[in-house]
Amino acid sequence: MTELYDEVGGPDGVRxxxxxxxxxxxxxxxxxxxxxxxxxxxxxxxxxxxxxxxxGGPQLFSGRSLSEAHGGLEITDAAxxxxxxxxCTSLADLGVRQEAVTRVAxxxxxxxxEVVTA
Length: 118
What we know:
Layout: H1 3-7, H2 10-27, H3 40-54, H4 66-70, H5 77-93, H6 98-109, H7 112-115
């Protein structure tokens, strides 16, 4: 595995971070509406696999491409920024070093073009 995947705590760290992250975004006044009516357990499983791979861990993600999954959602740059910030805050609150949190944000920035559609 890579240093970043290990830094966020491997599979247990990814699982915890995803749980904290979705707890926050579903309660967020600006982001929560995107998650209404969604099977959150299924989404969390996809997110764990996606983030594990994005962090250099096991390549277990087999879902739709990011552009297919997010194409009709009209996600704005501001919403994307808020999602990334929420994940980074979640990681920091879980004790992940700031350097690693910054690297996570940089990796997620690479997905912006596939996720932002509005």
